[in-house]
Amino acid sequence: xxxxxxxxxxxxxxxxxxxxLVVTTDFFTPVVDDPYDYGAIAAANSLSxxxxxxxxxxxxxNIAALPPALxxxxxxxxxxxxxxxxxxxxxxxxxxxxxxxxxxxxGLVALGFVDKNKMLTKAGLRPGDLLALTKPLxxxxxxxxxxxxxxxxxxxxxxxxxxxxxxxxxxxxxxEMGLSAATDVTGFSLLGHAMEMAASSGVxxxxxxxKIPFVSGARKYAEMxxxxxxxxxxxxxxxxxxxxxxxxxxxxxxxxxxPQTSGGLLLGVPKExxxxxxxxAEELDQPVWIIGEAREGAGIVVA
Length: 303
Ligand code: CO
Ligand code: CO
Known about the structure:
Blueprint: E1 11-14, E2 19-28, H1 35-52, E3 56-66, H2 72-88, E4 92-100, E5 105-115, E6 130-133, H3 139-147, H4 153-163, H5 168-176, E7 181-184, H6 189-201, E8 204-207, H7 218-223, H8 229-238, E9 242-244, H9 250-255, E10 265-269, H10 274-283, E11 289-295, E12 300-302
Parallel strand pairs: 3-4, 8-12, 9-12
Antiparallel strand pairs: 1-2, 2-5, 3-5, 6-10, 6-11, 7-10, 8-11
One cobalt (II) ion (CO) binds at residues 9, 49, 52, 183-184, 186.
């Protein structure tokens, strides 16, 4: 049902009239110093693509590359962080594979089920849909500030709390509300992933900058320009199709190209569903920010 023809969050294979299998994988090098947090973030990020399709993960395999000189307690903390996050998600880690490498890498292959009539894709946006985001932005510039030893402990705690948070409730909310458009905001940044949605759905997107949520340190680190390399790549690639209001300075613009690790879901919410959507989000204790809307046309405007 979903494969190589368009960019989407996971592959989907129809099993029967109702059910389809969702398959995805992700792994990366450490984004934080604490090995347990790193494992938990990598696992939450890997499972996120299943939630972004409207599915529920149930089984996963570890993929790890670990330096032979890494103390065994560090390796086991990485795997424990992943295992406990998977357990929180109701996912069984049934095996995996580890190789030796100079720099640690960790993530999961994740399998899930989705009701094929309730699947969420990047192509599901319609003109008039509101755009809801379920985690703030600014993880990339904050974790890069950490690597440059410029990050405050409190700012780091804040982004770790967000990055280890599963997108399970956000996905559940989307499915319950009968939404059809979703993606998770990760390495291609808010605007990169939004651009994929705009192109796949054949709509233009409008963002209201004042409505976009950021973690506490984001502005400070953006002004220190501690962006990861991917931010410039995102800007180079997606920037030409984005029109910014002249009032938005360089740092503000760059924050929207900041790669996110284990970012939130970006959902399309039909206008008539908004009151019920917001009420249910509150019941589920799921943060949501309405940051823009889809319109007729192509490309992205940020005002
Ligand atoms: Co994704
Ligand atoms: Co992914």
